[in-house]
Amino acid sequence: MWETILQACLAVLHLNGDVWQTVFTSLKVSVSALIVGTILGLPLGAILAIARFPGRDGCITLINTLMNVPTVIIGVLVYLLLSRTGPFGSLGILFTVPGMIIAQSLLTTPLIAAISRQTISDAWQTHRETFLSLHLKLFQQMKWILWDCRFSLIIALLAGFGRAISEVGAVMIVGGNIAHHTRTMTTAITLETSKGDLSLALSLGIVLILVVLMVNLFAFLTKKMSEKKYG
Q1: Whole-prediction pTM value?
Q2: Each residue of 34-78: pLDDT tens digit?
Q3: What topology is assigned to 18-184 in CATH?
């Protein structure tokens, strides 16, 4: 076991271009899904936290449920939608990177929305009376509460990225794990493990851990510098 781990660590320094293309595909899909999840999830979380409307509790329950849906279920649903016989089959994006981004966006959006809703809801209890006394419209309330919670919401974004970058099931189904095209780090790890090439699988795992570590470090440093600047 230790020999395999040592070989994996050394292999990280000698990964070929095909492997780095796999790493780049993972980052492209995951970052794109994070951007979509942020654009959709943060406003949705803010609306559910501060607005009161019929069916709100049902929407919160739905978001919390979608946050915990197995990824393979999302993969199958997206596959059916994008297949030739599906309603969006004419787009021709099954087994492509855009199709994988759609699948991962459906995973990141509910997660970011659910976490941000809870974070904003706690802050709303503190600022509610102030905002209401100023007679701010809903959009203005959302804008200011999101800004006030900007440091805390980094956790939601990190959770979204973590789910996207580590996801296997949905991208395997929707992307097809095609070499040089839709293969990601997680699907490559699954493939190499099944082939018995544990050193390569572990080396990809090390790269994956380093990517997540760098993202978390960047978020931590950004938060610290912003807190220092804005108090």
Answers
A1: 0.88
A2: 999 999 999 999 999 988 889 999 999 999 999 888 899 999 999
A3: MetI-like fold (1.10.3720)
Place of tokens 């999302």: 74
Question: Phi first, then psi: what are they for 73, rounded to 5°?
Answer: -65, -45
Question: What is the DSSP annotation of the chain?
Answer: -HHHHHHHHHHHTT--HHHHHHHHHHHHHHHHHHHHHHHHHHHHHHHHHH---TTHHHHHHHHHHHHTS-HHHHHHHHHHHHSTTSTTGGG--TTSHHHHHHHHHHHHHHHHHHHHHHHHHHHHHHHHHHHHHTT--HHHHHHHHHHHTTTTTHHHHHHHHHHHHT--HHHHHHH---TTTT--HHHHHHHHHHHT-HHHHHHHHHHHHHHHHHHHHHHHHHHHHHHHHH-
Domain locations along the chain: 18-184
Residue in the structure block whose two tokens are 């999840």: 37
* CA–CA dist 142, 144 (Å, integer): 6
